[in-house]
Specification:
36% helix, 14% strand, glutaminyl-tRNA synthase (glutamine-hydrolyzing) activity, 3-stranded mixed β-sheet, binds glutamine, ATP-binding
């Protein structure tokens, strides 16, 4: 049924880059075989999921939504995807995304925009599903996949979840292995789960997480039984409301939904505490130095020699091949990030930009450490607005970057954070609220999110 739904919705949503119905069926057949053999079933047995096309999948094209990887078929499976298959899940296909996960609207994909299943009333203008995990959010929101993987570098799980009315969790940095995930900004990249509700996210994240010796930043900690520990009882818990997130000119619907969330957590027994995260205003500029810097370094590997596309003009030398391949293979946003990153890492500007940004990153992380001495979790909006129309922000990169204002601080600090649906705005479009937790406390994040559900 899900395979048929994917096929039927693909022309309207463009959520998938490739579909793999046979893999979903294989997982279903495995359930029957295991049952007949009396074998225990995995926690995701038979569940057909969408796989963001940033995860290497053995034998299935992996593109990162870039032309430079078109036709690249990995010989290996990412740790996260192989854990999901081990838990019994099956793959519906590889989901569209912003190219190399750089974007907030899915408009930077080389395989066309993803289109959100949502519309404003009496308006046919196609809306952005958020990004970069926009194929994931659109597919789950459209009910053509019960769950999907996402990755989050500066908000790419949380923001698309918010814009499409679904749930998504980014765990503590290091919980999910980055091995086999196409690298964007290695000190920020984390995989996570996107699904209809908190419980489904907990089940899926439990299957994805765990120590991996092949990722040097992987956390060597056991994976807690988050699903078994779910509880919406907030009695005895303190919820921090950071005053710096109340921006001047904040969308009134976003402000109202935040107030609703505060009231819901109070009803669940929580004590609400106003807190301060004084360096919040520096998070966005800090992120847009560090993420491009790391990206420019990570993307140096796409040279026409090792992967995918090779543009070798007649009589060209090696340097010419590098240049021609990269010019033809990378999209404009990726080139912009490489230029910014190379600039901030260059000898004359390194200290002024990169070193400075690293210092500010530490201050931002310290703000959270201080706040978490007083509170258990922090509640903030996920994104500054509901879904915008395709094309509305794509002409102005800075306007697009502003979308990440509420999501990048937790990324820079490596903290677990989850977005859950929190009502509709004046146009009937979904809004999301974000719960940020202490490092390693996914349970606290999931439980507060459950109380908001
Ligand atoms: N929108 C942010 C960016 O463009 C975040 C992307 C992400 O989390 N992958 O960098």
């Amino acid at each position: 049924a899900f395979n048929a739904a994917v096929e039927a919705a693909q022309p309207a949503l463009n959520a998938f880059i490739v579909t793999t119905p046979e893999k979903a069926l294989e997982a279903a057949a495995r359930v029957d075989a295991d049952r007949a053999a009396g074998k225990p079933l995995g926690t995701m047995a038979g569940v057909p999921i969408g796989m963001k096309d940033l995860f290497a999948t053995k034998g299935t094209q992996t593109t990162a939504a870039s032309k430079i990887l078109e036709g690249f078929t990995p010989q290996y499976e990412s740790t996260v995807s192989s854990k999901l298959w081990d838990a019994g899940a099956g793959m519906l296909g590889k989901l569209n995304l912003d190219q190399f996960a750089m974007g907030s609207s899915n408009e930077t994909s080389a395989f066309g925009n993803v289109i959100s299943p949502w519309r404003r009333p009496n308006d046919t203008a196609p809306l952005a599903p958020g990004g970069s995990s926009g194929g994931s959010s659109a597919a789950v929101a459209a009910r053509i996949a019960p769950a999907a993987t996402g990755t989050d570098t500066g908000g790419s799980i949380r923001q698309p979840a918010a814009l499409t009315g679904i749930s998504g969790i980014k765990p503590t940095y290091g919980r999910c292995s980055r091995w086999g995930v196409v690298a964007f900004a290695s000190s920020l990249d984390q995989a996570g789960a996107m699904a209809h509700d908190v419980t489904d996210c907990a089940i899926m994240l439990e299957a994805m997480a765990g120590f991996d010796p092949k990722d040097s930043t992987s956390l060597n900690l056991p994976v807690p039984e988050w699903t078994a520990g779910l509880s919406a009882d907030m009695r005895g818990k303190k919820v921090g409301i950071p005053r710096e997130y109340r921006l001047d000119g904040m969308d009134p619907d976003v402000a109202r939904s935040w107030d609703d969330g505060i009231a819901w957590l109070k009803d669940a027994g929580a004590e609400i505490v106003e807190i301060s995260l004084p360096h919040t205003k520096y998070a966005l500029p800090t992120y847009y130095i560090i993420a491009p810097a790391e990206a420019s370094s990570n993307l140096a590997r796409y040279d026409g020699v090792r992967y995918g596309l090779r543009d070798l003009p007649d009589g060209a030398g090696l340097q010419d091949m590098y240049a021609a391949t990269r010019a033809a293979g990378f999209g404009p946003e990726v080139k912009r990030r490489i230029m910014i990153g190379t600039y901030v890492l260059s000898a004359g500007f390194y200290d002024a930009y990169y070193t400075q940004a690293q210092k500010v990153r530490t201050l931002i992380a310290r703000d959270f450490t201080n706040a978490f001495m007083d509170v258990d979790v922090i509640l903030v909006p996920t994104a500054p607005s509901s879904a915008f129309a395709l094309g509305e922000k794509s002409a102005d990169p800075l306007e697009m970057y502003l979308n990440d204002v509420f999501s990048v601080p937790a990324s820079l600090a490596g903290l677990p954070a989850m977005s859950v649906p929190a009502g509709l705005d004046r146009n009937g479009l979904p809004l999301g609220l974000q719960v940020i937790g202490k490092a390693f406390d996914e349970q606290g994040v999931l439980n507060a999110s459950l109380a908001l559900e």
